[in-house]
Amino acid sequence: MQDTDVLDNISSLVEEEKRLRAQGTNSEDSQKRLRHVQEQLDQCWDLLRQRRAKAEFGEDPDAAQVRDPGTVENYEG
């Protein structure tokens, strides 16, 4: 996976998030889907940051791993 792949995924998720918000989140299913999309976005941004940091410090960016939502959502830097 390349940075461009992660960025493409982010773009797709942002579009879906916009669509869901425009439709409204009146149902429980749409609320769950929106939360899931937001978690996926956070994971993608986290992965992109990991990849860029590894590249900056001479490490292999492909060694970056998607972290679980609990880790990403509760991260305190």
TrEMBL record:
- Pfam assignment, any one: DUF2630
InterPro entries associated with the record? Uncharacterised_Rv0898c
- Renumbered to this chain, region (Disordered) spans 55-77
Q: What is this protein called?
A: DUF2630 family protein
